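Can anyone check this?
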Amino acid sequence: MCQYNFLILENNALENVIIEVGKASNFRFQNVLTKFSIPNLHSYVTDLSEDNCNCGSVIGCREWKEEEKFNIEKEKKKLERKRYSNNRIERLLIQKQEQLNLRKTQTENSEYKEADKWIKFFHDLKKEKLENKVGLIFHHYCSQVSEELVKIEEDNLDVEKLTIETLKSMVENKLYWINYKASR
């Protein structure tokens, strides 16, 4: 299963604006054929990783991301069964905790960087005084993107309330229409 993040347009008349603002925000948008339960939506997949998906994205990560737990007692018992010395066990436990902390810091930095890109992108779109709707949605696909029907709900999100926490808290298959009107 792979996650894909989509920028959704109500009407493809905005395509050129989206692509230009996207370039300024370091996004590459690519039009893709998708099957959503709401017809006539135009979807653009964003910045695919080396694996050609958006797995590991900040968008919706609270829904799927599990905190990596480090059970020090369990790890200590495992090392004791291997008959390691107490000094070696202590060093290995410290090393494992440091690696875990480093990975967590790298993940958080990556999340903030991606969130900042999205927030900047939507604020830059606000300057364009759009008349048509622009939204954001993510879905975990089990098959090809063009084959799977995605049943979606709709919600509105004010651009001024767009933060890293709102991006993390997004729900899969919920289309968040970004509201610019209230913030002008």
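Reply from J.R.: I decoded it. Residues 2-66+117-183 form one domain.
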